[in-house]
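User: Run a structure prediction on this.
Assistant: Running it now.
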Amino acid sequence: MTKKRLSLCIPNEYATSIYQVDFDHLYLSGKRLVLIDLDNTIADYDTSKASEDIKLLFKKIKSLGFAVMIISNNAKKRVSGFADELSVSFKERLYKPMTGKIKKVLSHLPYKKEETIWIGDQILTDVLCASKIGIASVLVDPIKKTTEKWYTKIRRIREEKTLTEIKEYYPDRYIELGLNKR
């Protein structure tokens, strides 16, 4: 991977889970829209309903003043079920890291890129797509890798190589973010 492309794979922040993301800090820093991945960020692939902990977290996020949108490569039926339970908007079948569909969605929202934060568990879909669009990202650890689809498992192998390259070419940023703990 070229050094320029590799730089697009570096998140702005890292947290072990969405429960560790400092939403208060994000709001104080001017963020107003939270784009959040569904699979292995909000729930593992085997889970079809939002947990009580997730419901409470989303309630807190919205009470801070954030607009929230679930963004996913998954099918409408799965994504809409979670979005309905959590009373948030959603967009499915985005084909991340391609940017066309998400750019179109964002063009209809009243938020600037600087006001938007993208939270997800995959470097090569979530972080890369956010960077290509010019949106800050928070990388979180996946909830449960054992339930991932075969194509996600292949991406995880590539993701490990990408993390190794980040460590090699951007060692200070790698340590500063805490990616060595991932």
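The CA atoms of residues 98 and 129 lie 7 Å apart.
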